[in-house]
């Protein structure tokens, strides 16, 4: 397994994601070729919580002017079981490029 920082890129903070936090679901931008098991293990390693399930959504890059395309990416929504919770805005360590 690779380093957890290689799998999890950044937390996704939007209005919809903030609504999902109330349901104890947290969203992260993850590496394009990462699988559900790999994402779950990375979240467990980074935040020291048990992951109940992982949902992955694929985002295709938008076509820009002159035929260029923005980068494609995946969004992951792991859900810790029961009363476990994580605070992505304060718990995600700084990731150096």
Strand content: 15-25%
CATH architecture: 2-Layer Sandwich
Number of domains: 1
Proportion of helical residues:
25-40%
Mean pLDDT: 78
The CATH topology assignment is Alpha-Beta Plaits
Distance between the termini: 20 Å
CATH class category name = Alpha Beta
Report the CATH superfamily: RRM (RNA recognition motif) domain
Q: What structural class should be given to the helix and strand makeup?
A: alpha+beta
The arrangement of helices and strands along the chain is HEHEHEEH
Shape descriptor = globular
Let me know the largest β-sheet: 4 strands, antiparallel
Could you give the count of β-strands? 4
Give a brief rundown of this model.
This protein has helices at residues 4-7, 15-22, 36-47, 88-91, and strands at 8-11, 28-30, 53-59, 73-79. It is α+β, with helices and mostly antiparallel strands and 97 residues long. It has one domain (4-61, 71-82): Alpha-Beta Plaits (2-Layer Sandwich), CATH 3.30.70.
Provide the descriptors you would attach to this structure in a database record.
97 residues, alpha+beta, Alpha-Beta Plaits, 4 helices, disordered C terminus
Describe this structure in words.
- Strands 1-2-4-3 form a four-stranded antiparallel β-sheet.
- With 97 residues, the chain is of the alpha+beta class.
- The protein has four helices and four strands.
- Helix content is 29%, strand content 22%.
- The protein is globular, with a radius of gyration of 14 Å.
- The model is unreliable at 90-97 (pLDDT under 50).
- The two termini are 20 Å apart.
- It has a single domain (4-61, 71-82), classed as 2-Layer Sandwich (Alpha-Beta Plaits), CATH 3.30.70.
